[in-house]
Amino acid sequence: MLWLGEQVLAYSRRFILETALSGLALAALRPAGARSVEGGVAPALLQRALGALERHRDSIDYRDVIGIADFSLPSRTPRFYLLAPANGSVTSYLVAHGRGSDPHRTGWLEYFSNEPHSNATSAGAYRTGSRYLGAHGQALHLEGLDPTNSQAASRAIVVHGAWYVSDGMVAHTGMLGRSEGCLAVSAASLDEVLACLGPGRLIYAGRA
Description:
Elements (H helix, E strand, L loop, with lengths): L1 E2 L2 H4 L3 H17 L13 H13 L10 E5 L9 E5 L4 E5 L1 E2 L27 E11 L2 E8 L13 E5 L4 H7 L9 E4 H10 L5 E5 L2
Parallel strand pairs: 2-10, 8-9
Antiparallel strand pairs: 1-4, 2-3, 3-4, 5-9, 6-7, 6-10, 7-8
């Protein structure tokens, strides 16, 4: 578990008071699949995520947990952060990017796309929807809130577990496999991620 300290706590006294009780629940949870990353969320990306939370405040029902995906990092790095703004605690997970964003399979996201059939990752703010059972097992619907990810629902961009997202895959190939644009996490971490990110919360995907 990593602590961001004053950077988040000073963001908005009103915001902190609104989320204090629910934010403490994430800190107490300490998911087994999560890990700490030295340095935490990149400050510029964090500010954009918090700005998106304010910009889309009418669409976001719960502010106890924010998901932030930093696609400026390679896929071998735990780069999907769950942040509790009330106390600044952060947990991190492996997450895959879309094959269309990494056509040469380098393990680095080259570009974002919102285009149908691009198989690429889209940048921007997402609202988490309902949990469902689909082709990949348990998954979480996502709604794109920005022009850069407005096609997310029609493209079936969701959060789901995947066999190609694991420490073993990183050890074997030096990178994760690629999704078709979804935020694919490890099967071992999926339950923990979905337990923290229920419907009506924000996920922000971008680059630092």
